[in-house]
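Example 4.3 (complexes with small molecules)
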Amino acid sequence: MSHPELVKVKPDIAANALINRQKYDDMARRASTGPDAFWAAEAKRLDWIKPPTKIKNTSFSGAVSIKWFEDGVLNASANCLDRHLAARGDQVAIIWEGDDPNDQKHVTYRQLHAEVCRMANVLKSLGAKKGDRITIYLPMIVEAAVALLACARIGAVHSVVFGGFSPDSLANRIQDCDSSILITADEGRRGGRKVPLKANADAALKSCPMMKSVLVVRATGGDVPMQAGRDHWYHEAAAQVSADCAPEPMGAEDPLFILYTSGSTGKPKGVLHTTGGYMVWASFTHEYVFDYHPGEIYWCTADVGWVTGHTYIVYGPLANGATTLMFEGIPNYPDSSRFWQVVDKHKVNIFYTAPTAIRALMRDGEAPVKRASRASLRVLGTVGEPINPEAWLWYYRVVGDERCPIVDTWWQTETGGIMITALPGAIDQKPGSATLPLPGVQPVIVDGEGHVLEGPTEGNLCIADSWPGMMRTVFGDHERFVQTYFSTFKGYYFSGDGARRDEDGYYWITGRVDDVINVSGHRMGTAEVESALVAHPKVAEAAVVGFPHDIKGQGIYAYVTLIASEEPTEALRRELVAWVRKEIGPIAAPDAIQWAPGLPKTRSGKIMRRILRKIAANETSNLGDTSTLADPGVVDDLVANRAA
Ligand code: 6R9
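Answer. The structure with 6R9 bound is encoded below.
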């Protein structure tokens, strides 16, 4: 599908941006020709207890060893808090916007520092020490950020488990990293409903004998049972300790956190990030990608349970002394104008969200957006999946009034931070393309045999050399780290994504390589077909998978959700097949279209294609684990209404 639009950097934005095109080119050159000098200079954005003298010491072959700034000593929480106190102690660090539009809080750097010290002291009183793993299972409340930073302060390794995960998933993650302290809350709030976190935790802990202490934050005031000796109310414990806690000196390569993420096989992997390189990457990318200027209000709508929340709600913005907004709610509660009401209320300058949210809001039309002025907005971002050009253009035109550049940021839990993205003042945008790599990132496209392809091409997206923010290992299983990321293409980090590079060197992520469909020997990105379907005015959302086909090898099976005012008809089905054929070509025409009132999505909004592939293949007797779906009921409907 060709989209001729090129959205050029606006001169006034370039003039005021931290990075213009000339500076970008210069940085990219210096980062590739002299990484040691480049990253030694960038490391100065942090406060080091002992500055590093060794910068890069990494190998992508053999046993794979990644070390950055290895003789440096620092503390992540001191970088997010203490060093800001003199200049901006009374500046708001966190604006918290509750699920209920009447609930809000403003927390200054000084207040946040005191609260983090208190929680750090409480954790110490429970016996926590450097290197211990602490699991965090919290809703989007200020204490979630406090908990991350309190762990970092005492050198404990946090493992955040998204509040929407089931007791079983929580238990598995606690067991895998052998954590002995859990920080949770009575309940969470989302979209006017309550999430029974403490009850889930109690259920999980039945199979976690290693768990010694549970710290419970009182969030809703709901009545929850407390187990004597094990469970402690946070507010009671915090009242007993001081608001001073010296930050633990940490080696740059000491672990900062573990975050579990799913791969195509096996149980979730504990992605391990360490302190120095991750913090440099978080600060570097947050400042430059969002063109963050002091005093601006920055809002990332992710949940702190995902890597986006770690890097772009907590560590990146706070390392940079920013004001970061934390939102407890959802995009359509109380109604689908909520995001834009919050933007106006708190005068948000930089807004970062997911394509799935944009597409959902698109369904409700422009009116809810136009009810807010959005005059404060300056930069818009997306993350999490490929954004189809239609959603991109809607975001650009309707939300940003064609005023705000869009940064489509490609990255992964494993990469620690953003890797490929436009920069607001430097890189012309193309709707649907993540555009160009950040300085220090060396993407390569590799064919199935591991040959690096040059020029305009398409293949497997790999990274040729290490960058400071990358994961260091899979917790407790370095061999799995090597196998998963470095064995498919020797000497390269393999992302698991496919990508196309165009004649301008721009990257277009085509989706997970495991989702590529091979139709009669032609490779087809599921994202491409979905993008075409979603471009149809009657289609709200679409998910496409391959299914076994006698003649073509694989056929294309499309699940289509129509906009609210449309009814599924045979005529419309034929119209959509013809539409895709026209948009991409005959090989992309779906073999089957199933009307789907809803798609099976994880709570982070990712479509669970594994299930869609099984339904498409008529293997419905064993759909596997559906417990992490936001709404498992969706699956029954899809099974019952398979397209013949
Ligand atoms: C940050 C995050 C990583 C996977 C990644 C890719 C997809 C993320 C994207 C994107 C296209 C973007 N992805 N950002 N695809 N364009 N801008 O989402 O981490 O949850 O680990 O997911 O998400 O497929 O491999 P994570």
